[in-house]
Write a structure and sequence with these properties.
The chain is mainly α. Helices cover about 65% and strands about 5% of the residues. It folds into two domains: about 90 residues, Non-ribosomal Peptide Synthetase Peptidyl Carrier Protein, Chain A (Orthogonal Bundle); about 30 residues, no CATH class. It is built from four helices and two strands. A two-stranded antiparallel ribbon has the order 1-2.
């Protein structure tokens, strides 16, 4: 049971996911500080209050605080914009180019090409010559 858990944890994609979470948390802290300090300051210059953390509405003697929600919405908008412009737009352009044929799809070699490469490598290994890999159609073996 513990061996299975250890294998699961040491799998590459679990470690990659853990790294992504840590980087995401750090990025979230940067975005939060940017939204609170810079964007909040700019909006504060226009609206009069630089700190939205305590902004709210008073109704029946109770204060409804909406400032933290405003900060969270600004954080969300910044993260969504970064993801859209840094990841989604380039991937869409890449997929569109690939669909139009500007970027070739990964070419899968045929069985004949693979066999000819193996033959050439074995021939070079047997003669001690440097191996050459052909990219064209298979060449017939030399007649003896």
């Amino acid at each position: 049971m513990l061996k299975g858990f250890r294998d699961f944890i040491l799998r590459g994609n679990v470690i990659d996911l853990a790294i992504a979470v840590v980087i995401g948390i750090a990025f979230g802290a940067v975005v939060s500080a940017f939204a609170t300090d810079f964007i909040g300051g700019l909006i504060g210059v226009i609206g009069g209050t630089p700190d939205f953390g305590t902004a709210g509405i008073t109704a029946n003697g109770s204060k409804i605080i909406i400032g933290s929600t405003i900060n969270a919405l600004i954080d969300f908008a910044i993260v969504a914009a970064v993801i859209y412009f840094v990841i989604v737009v380039p991937m869409n352009k890449f997929a569109e180019r690939r669909k139009r044929g500007e970027l070739p799809a990964d070419a899968v070699p045929t069985s004949e090409e693979l066999l000819s490469e193996i033959r050439d490598l074995l021939r070079a290994q047997a003669t001690g010559a440097a191996p050459t890999i052909s990219t064209g159609p298979p060449t017939p073996p030399p007649s003896a």
